[in-house]
């Protein structure tokens, strides 16, 4: 499977391009937003009506992103708005090339494949400046789970100088970059790299603004496969050996066993087996997970810190192969059912949610061919309420049930940007499944109505819908969780984060990583399993003694693998032991 991943020279070329693209895109976004007068108390006199409307929407969106607003002077901060605009423009262009190189770009009206050459011909017909603008528009229409089509940042027009520079950066990349399965994950890490370096050098305590950049770490492919092969793969191997007991007794070695457990479209090459004694029967080294459901269709999987979706895409491939084998589904039907029934992700960074959704879509189309996909169950759990509580509740327009729901959502997500998946829905009955479905039913017509309302209302209703989706995932439990937890020692955490962890996860408070492990336990179903790439310090330091006792007393440890100080290719020296 190594040929699916970027070789080092191409990864370095991608890193150089992405770092340059961020500088160019942010300069273009800053210039465009300044020209629109988004930060100013009054609109510039040279704006036409459409530009004035866009300016109002951008100001509301800036507040929704957490930028400050001076009510007295009516001036608007735009730092996060500039970052969001830059990110959306570059990634819409990048995603368009991913689709084009994989022959997946399609005309949204006629539902036929188009090439970049076709897009150049269509540009004049559609009144767009060039083929890239057409490709970007088509890509956004294909990916409603990635791009919000009414997102005001996508309506911002860059100066041609910046657009052309971005075009050159994306077209100069080797086509092989867009065929590798890990390119999207590296793309996000490289986008954040300069920001991460700046924060680390500053020595500031890590809070909501710094957390996504500092704790994002691309998970190496072998780590993802090892964890999933020795959970999902071990469960499947248990079924294979139960159906053929002689195999467990007569197999010559692990190679023979892995071959016997392979699926038509997937091989568990990192699945490990052990023998009982010198000539006893073979079994999966991690066990067979007897507490799990008997059929793959009932296995719910969550990555609670899903980042760019590396665990989700690998799990999608495995679960689709399992469901094909058990239910005799076509690849396309298996993909659709896994997205609907099995796969879930939560992420504190909204930009990562976009990349994860796109990565899942690319994997789905690679396996099952082109089809309109169900929206993936991947939610942004770091979004703050965009309005004060009184205004947020007023979005219910007098509906008492919805007012109650919006008030509870506002309370739950007030600290979302710094807590993410550490949030625990509690209190009252709002977060019961039926209530959450009720919220969705009530918000759907409100969302349609809000599209014609003031920008603040639009942002509020869109945020409420996203919060309801995230709350639904936080409320559930899962058969399997697999992730690379965020690493951040207590001494580097800002006060709000450190205090919350102390209150909710006292035994695990020494590091954000151990707190997330404790949180995963709460998200695990009875008989369920969670696994993670973590720092090794919790396994031996005195500050984690109570945490270790709780794990050993109350849970079953299936397997542990020490990777050492150079487990991550991009981290040199002894910085991280996992």
Rounded mean pLDDT is 89
Tell the overall outline. Answer: globular
Low-confidence stretches: none
The total count of helices amounts to 23
Q: What is the helix content?
A: 40-55%
Radius of gyration equals: 24 Å
Euclidean distance between termini CA atoms: 23 Å
The structural class is alpha/beta
The overall strand count is: 9
Note down, in words, how this protein is organized:
The chain is of the alpha/beta class and 578 residues long. It is built from 23 helices and nine strands. It has helices at 8-35, 49-64, 79-101, 116-125, 131-142, 160-172, 183-202, 211-215, 221-229, 232-243, 245-250, 254-261, 310-327, 331-341, 350-368, 389-394, 400-413, 416-419, 433-450, 455-475, 495-504, 512-523, 545-554; strands at residues 69-70, 75-76, 273-275, 282-284, 301-303, 343-347, 377-380, 478-484, 524-533. The two termini are 23 Å apart. The model has no long low-confidence stretch (mean pLDDT 89).
Quick structural gist:
The protein has helices spanning 8-35, 49-64, 79-101, 116-125, 131-142, 160-172, 183-202, 211-215, 221-229, 232-243, 245-250, 254-261, 310-327, 331-341, 350-368, 389-394, 400-413, 416-419, 433-450, 455-475, 495-504, 512-523, 545-554, and strands at residues 69-70, 75-76, 273-275, 282-284, 301-303, 343-347, 377-380, 478-484, 524-533. The protein is 53% helix and 7% strand.
Question: What are the defining features of this structure?
Answer:
single chain, 23 helices
Topology, please?
Blueprint: H1 8-35, H2 49-64, E1 69-70, E2 75-76, H3 79-101, H4 116-125, H5 131-142, H6 160-172, H7 183-202, H8 211-215, H9 221-229, H10 232-243, H11 245-250, H12 254-261, E3 273-275, E4 282-284, E5 301-303, H13 310-327, H14 331-341, E6 343-347, H15 350-368, E7 377-380, H16 389-394, H17 400-413, H18 416-419, H19 433-450, H20 455-475, E8 478-484, H21 495-504, H22 512-523, E9 524-533, H23 545-554
Parallel strand pairs: 5-6, 5-8, 6-7, 8-9
Antiparallel strand pairs: 1-2, 3-4
Helix pairs in contact: 1-3, 1-6, 1-7, 2-20, 3-5, 3-6, 4-5, 9-13, 10-12, 13-14, 13-15, 14-15, 17-20, 19-20
